[in-house]
Amino acid sequence: MLLRGYLAGILLLLSCFAFAEESILNIDNEDQLTEAITKLNEKNEDLRQNMEYQKAHLTSIVNEQNNINTQISHVQNTLATLAEQGEWLSFSTALGETLRQQLLRLPEKPKSQPLDAEIAEAKVQQLNYSNTLAGLDNYPVLSGNLNNLKTASQYRRLIREQGELLKTLISGIDTTILELTKLKISNKQLTNAIDEVNDAAHRYFFWVADVNPISLSFLLDLVKDVVYVTFSIDTLSQLYNAGVEVLSAPKPLFFLVLSLLFVFVQLKMRGKYNAFLNKSATRVGKVTQDSYALTLKVIIFSLIMALPVPILWAALGFALQINWDYPVAVALGYGVNAAAPVLWVFIITAHFASQNGLFITHFGWSKQNVRQAMKYYRLSVWVVIPLVVVVMSFDQFNNRQFAATIGRAAFIVLCFALVFMTNSIHRAGVPLYIDKKGSGDNLLSHILWFVLLSAPWLAIIAACLGYLSTAEVLLGRLEASVVIWFGLLVIYFMIRRWMWIQKRRIEFERTKQRRLERMQRAKGIEEDLTSMNENVDEPVIDLDVISAQSLQLVRSIIMLIALISMILLWSELHSAFAFMNNIKLWGTSTIINGNEIEQHITLGSVCIAILVMTITIQLVKNLPALLELGILQHLDLAHGTGYAISTVSKYIILMIGCMIAFSFIGIDWAKIQWLIAALGVGLGFGLQEIFANFISGLIILFEKPVRIGDTVTIRDLTGNITKINTRAITIVDWDRKEIVMPNKAFITEQLVNWSLSDSITRIVLTIPATIDADSELVIKLLQQASQECEYVLSDPEPQVFLVDIQEGIQLFELRLFAAEMGHRMKLRSAIHKLILDAYRQHDLTLPFPPLQTNLEALGRKSGRRSYTIGTI
């Protein structure tokens, strides 16, 4: 009806345009007038029909509004019934079944998209009518000789009537749009009411037994239901008829044929796939042939090879599910579809665990352990998958009529199968958490394994006691969490293998370079690098010590991803744990709009606060690495700026996280701001040094007078900075001792930073010579020694001066420049050896004392250097 009205409006608009094109400015004779009147009558009749349709459509909209309002009242009554009877659900399973049947009779959620499209069409139609009404002024004008005819008055009356009809239609469309808007609001209210009822039902029914506990009559009931399902409801006949319809329907038949084609291609490609695995296995571990691309190809090909059978499985489930005339087929199709992802995971795991697959060849896992973990693989395929199909099918068939018997028996058997599988994986030594040392033998891994091993037994006990739905949902979420966890574990080992390959290549290149240098020194010729690739010993590298910091970063990122995944996965059950909001721990008062309101802190609020603090701590611990890896390394920042950004970000996140967590337990900013202010004043006097060091630390982070790795001299201490913390800075001196200096000292005291803007430092050596030695020769020898020393920089160039004569001894000053602080002692040692060799070659003697070194690079206290006997 709506489409017909829309088309009628369009035709009316087109006819008006056609009439306007065909019309003339004046009507001069009666034949033209009669034709114009006929067209006007036809158009007015169309407008009357549209008006009748508009009234009928408006009536249907109002009726739909009344129907929606009735449904809203029904849903609200159901919610009230749940609230009243919820506390009695644990005492009667019959009451629970009655309420569940009442929930099944709830209306479906209305869809807002049709209403939006209808409102848009109504506005288009209103615009067409408005354009037609505006075009009435363009109708032909009657000539003077026709004005007195009776048909002329009829012509004018029809034009006025058309205008009135158009105005009425435009007004009616306004009313229709208004009523459609009201209907859309009612639909939104109904949707919200249904969501509220579903949340309440989930909250009340999740922890309530949905079936009777197992008794002595359970086996007898199970046999009766099996016989009834097999023979009384024509299960085989329904499946046969559903299969016939599948083969006759084009769409499901196309999907089935396409899936069979995929399976056929997979069988044909299996030989090439195995050959690729064998070929790649021969290259893995060889430094000149191994590459990370091999691992990626193995993963991609394994995923593709594992896909056809699950696709066929899902296509079969889809074909059965669309046969609404056969409830058994629909329920079975739902179960088959639910088992398809599980089947894909099992097949992927089998491909990864093959002889030359990902786990053994590329990750280096023990072949015996992998075989132990896959011991019950056939059990998983031929037992677990059919049991999942049975459980999910009877959970959907005929309002769970057989869930208490057949469904529960299949679920218990499924749990026993999971017990065998989980124990085999545990005995294989598969880690659930890898610590900093790269070991899976840690407390958290043991706790996770305890939960995983206990889950099937707890599910069996819950199902026997009647909590079947609760056990199914919780066990399903737990198994999905395990799949996600193992997927992240595989990703961790993939990244670890990439780092391992990169490390081997670096070590191989270094070994090859050292070999080449040795051969060049020994033979003086350059060997062929191609022959060296076959003879160089491949370095053996310990995986546990490769890039420990990078692996820690990867571990932290994966832990954050795992935590977020678990939150998203279990977030659907938030209403099931709403009972914690009823457990009141303590009370607190808050002021809202000037009124003091009493609030209670519940167990749920405490759990949320703990979760917020956990996420905050993880972010604070891993934020520097995350920022460095994801953002800071791609920015052109000065040295130390990234560290300052990371540190300040940690403080901000910690403050925000603490405020959010405290707000959940009743400690908000409005209550503690005066306490913090008072503590700030008190601590400012009592712990002013601590606060001074804290503020100094912030100044150091932003001004950067010192950075990690700088060589500094403060007071009588010289060393390298290794840590910049909130209160103090750690310096490691030349004796490898760690000295903790307060931040305040670096701001208020004199500080020498040897590598702040330039790491080049000057070394001043005082070299003596006898009074009768040739001064020019000594200067030439000192300059030659400076040029031969590999640690002396040529820019700035070395300088030699005859600076003094004391007690019959010439004193020469040699000024040299080293590239960094680490070269100072090496430079002194090398230059001293070269000077001594030059003195011996030219028969020069050193007066007593033979050599004096003035470390003027550390600062000179007087204008004249002293030459003390016995100094070095």
UniProtKB/TrEMBL annotation:
This protein's UniProt keywords? Cell membrane, Coiled coil, Membrane, Signal, Transmembrane, Transmembrane helix
In what residue span(s) does the Mechanosensitive ion channel MscS domain sit? Answer: 690-755
Q: Which GO terms describe its molecular function?
A: mechanosensitive monoatomic ion channel activity
Extract the Gene3D superfamilies matched here. 1.10.287.1260, 2.30.30.60, 3.30.70.100
Membrane spanning stretches: 253-271, 292-322, 376-394, 406-426, 447-468, 474-495, 557-580, 651-670, 676-702
What positions does the domain Mechanosensitive ion channel MscS C-terminal occupy? Answer: 763-844
Signal sequence span is 1-20
Q: How does it sit in the membrane?
A: Multi-pass membrane protein
Q: List residues of the Mechanosensitive ion channel transmembrane helices 2/3 domain.
A: 647-688
Q: Which InterPro entries match?
A: LSM_dom_sf, MS_channel_1st, MS_channel_C, MscS-like_channel, MscS_beta-dom_sf, MscS_channel_2nd, MscS_channel_C_sf, MscS_channel_TM-2
Taking the record's annotation, the residue ranges forming a coiled coil are 30-57
Question: A GO CC term?
Answer: plasma membrane
What organism is this sequence from? Gilliamella apicola
Protein family membership: Belongs to the MscS (TC 1.A.23) family.
**Domain Mechanosensitive ion channel inner membrane span(s) in chain numbering:** 254-586
What is this protein's record name? Miniconductance mechanosensitive channel MscM
Main subcellular location of this protein, as a coarse class: membrane
Which subcellular locations apply to this protein?
A: Cell membrane
